[in-house]
Amino acid sequence: MREEKGTNKYRIKGQSVMEKRISMGYTQEKLGELTGFSRTTIQNIERNVISGTVNQLMRLAKALECESDELIEEEKSNE
């Protein structure tokens, strides 16, 4: 399936997740407990190794007590 020109792609903004996690005093392990994700998944999201799913975004926003749009960014295109 081809992507249409002008279609925006978004990802979970790892830096925002990390900043909010730290400001709430959570370790990666604690955030993992609150979301049901492994510490490795939290680490990979924070390092932008994975883009994250909508489900992950919603669970992170709930655990970090913020709106989901605070945790997303537009992916940079290599075009």
What do you see in this structure?
The chain has 79 residues and is mainly alpha-helical. The chain is built from four helices and two strands. It has helices at residues 14-23, 28-35, 39-46, 54-63; strands spanning 10-12, 72-74. A two-stranded antiparallel ribbon has the order 1-2. Helix 2 (28-35) crosses helix 3 (39-46). The longest helix has 10 residues, at 14-23. The chain is globular. It starts with 9 loop residues before the first strand and ends in a 5-residue tail after the last strand. The mean pLDDT is 90.
Quick summary:
With 79 residues, the protein is mostly helical.
Write the layout of secondary structure elements.
Blueprint (H helix, E strand, L loop, with lengths): L9 E3 L1 H10 L4 H8 L3 H8 L7 H10 L8 E3 L5
Antiparallel strand pairs: 1-2
For this entry, give a set of tags.
two-stranded antiparallel sheet; 79 residues; 4 helices; globular; mainly alpha; 46% helix; single chain
**Beta fraction of the residues?**
5-15%
Number of strands: 2
- Rg measurement, Å: 13 Å
Structural class designation: mainly alpha
